[in-house]
Design goal:
The protein has 189 residues and is of the alpha+beta class. The protein is 17% helix and 28% strand. It is built from four helices and six strands. It is globular, with a radius of gyration of 16 Å.
Length: 189
Amino acid sequence: MHAALKYLSVVGGCSVLAVAVAAGSGFVTGDSKYSVKVPGGLSFSEVKGYEKWEPIAISHNGEHLALILGNPTMIAAYKSGVPGNGKPFPDGSKMVKAHWEAKKSETEPGNPYVPGGLHDIDVMVRDSKRFADSGNWGYGYFKYEAAGDKFVPATTADSPPQANDAKCGFACHTVVKTRDYVFTDFARR
């Protein structure tokens, strides 16, 4: 069973399970996405294999549903108490946040929100040597274009605006500096 589906089905609730089912089948397949790079910044290839990473949490902001995934280094750090224990995530920690358009289910009782079209993939990679001037994290924001079934780097014209380098998310994340620049808590299982 896909790790995200297994986790989310344990969490319970019909709408949460709907996110898991859609998330398990909603990732773009193929290697072409791994050639995309934020100019002067992160490459999508730096998170290759994220589709099989363990879930950190899910979120809903009204317009989008998201599944946040972490590589084994990130998950191990969370399980050891980072960032609540005051320690930083170790170099090599990586997380991916996949966003889908939120839509009301036409088939589930109560019409919960479920994933619609894929919107974007956000990435964070911790590397204190490469990203010392942005809190030791590099950021990337890759928009999904359904018409061409491809990802493209976000720009300053997007919302939120993204600069063309690996620091594109740093300004937003400074509000959680004491949490090693990470907003997301590890969801209890």
